[in-house]
Amino acid sequence: EGFACMVMLDESHCSAHSYAKEGLMAIDIFTCGKTDPELVFEILKNKCPELKSADISVRIIERFIL
User: Fold this and answer.
1) How far apart are the first and last CA of the chain?
2) What percentage of residues in the chain have a pLDDT greater than 90?
3) What count of Cα atoms within 13 Å lies in the side-chain half-sphere of residue 46?
């Protein structure tokens, strides 16, 4: 049981995958340009009260480093 969800934007995307039996959810926020993924996550937490009380770990992965 669970779900997967994706929101695609012009140069970015957010995806969420839930693993209900394990009580886990993985959220990926991929942004390009000047959009700050940490700000996107803060907005998401403010819109989803369930995330405010969750045990959250964040891993930031720099992409496309030349």
Assistant:
1) 40
2) 20
3) 6
pTM listed for this prediction: 0.73
Q: According to DSSP H, which parts of the chain are helical? A: 37-47, 49-52
Kindly give, in sequence order, each residue whose CB lies less than 8 Å from that of residue 35, ignoring residues fewer than 6 positions away: 11, 12
Helix (H, G, I), strand (E, B) or coil at 21: helix
Buried b (16+ CB within 10 A) or exposed e, 27-56: bebbbeeeeebeebbeeeeeeeeeeeeeee
Host H or E run for residue 13:
strand 13-19
Evaluate whether 6 touches 15 at the Cβ level (below 8 Å): yes
